Amino acid sequence: MKQVKTIFSGIKPSGDLTIGNYIGAISQWAEMQAYNNCIFSIVDYHAITVKQDPTILRRRILDITKIYLAAGIDPQKSIIFQQSTVPAHTELAWILNCLGTYMADLKKMTQFKDKAGDRQDAVSVGLFDYPVLMAADILLYDTQSVPVGEDQKQHVELARDIAKRFNNEYGPIFVIPEAVVRKEGARVMSLTDPSKKMAKSDDSANSYIALLDDIELAKKKIIKAVTDSGTDIDYDPAERPALANLLTIYAALGNRQIPRLVKDYAGKGYGEFKKDLAEVVAKFLGDFQDKFKQISDADAQAVLEQGREKAAEITQVKMEKIRAAIGVR
Q1: Would the pLDDT of 109 be above 90?
Q2: pTM of the predicted model, to two decimals?
Q3: Which of 19, 67, 80, 10 shows the shortest CA–CA distance to 253?
Q4: Which end of the chain has a smaller Cβ tally under 10 Å, C or N?
Q5: What's the confidence (pLDDT) of residue 284?
């Protein structure tokens, strides 16, 4: 029998969620809720580390909630809530900024370096500091496991370091979390550049397939996807990363193992493989979007309110303990 754990994860409402988000994160969340205590957030305060259009941000918060539900996350089994509606997240982030986090920690964060580039002195403090808010998100709920993509593992390690320092100073307040990364499909790559992760923020719409993309458009993106030299269908991420990426997508959305796909397409070329993959993607998107359309904005809002109440109840107890430990109560 599997041990019941507390799981926390979240997605920023910035950009359109992609099949990469689904394969690497959301699909495994639905599986985890069957035997864990799961808490899934729309982390909207992480989104505002860069400027957002308020109208679009509001729309995306509801759409991501509906995507969670369409993916099979059950609000009767899991908590689904909007981060900004639970003030304990920002309160704890401030406490952790002061007690447990060093400037040297944040200067090591590779995502900040990647996003800020050579403009590090001109970006918002929030972009630099958001890993501490992420640590607060995780630690508030006595989280044991954090399902993340490979690019977020460093942030979970920071949360672990902060929790250990705080516990050493104030006693056993926080559970030390572990990152959980799905090995196969953990990082779906760009369709135009397999050296980069498929990202909803990419400037080229051809590089990703959004969960709410027009289905015919999505099929064209698969047909246009870059491929490697050679014609055989085999799985070699080091030498043929573009094909390996397409095989990963096929396996995840078509529910077939990669070795079986390689065997099935032996002696066949890229053309037939990509045509079949396009149909697999189309079927997945069609089924997913049908479920999405059945969920109203009012339904999504009701789920968020229910989740807010449950999250607030948990965090109120936790924050009382934290405040007492540091001496402000």
Answers
A1: no
A2: 0.92
A3: 19
A4: N
A5: 97
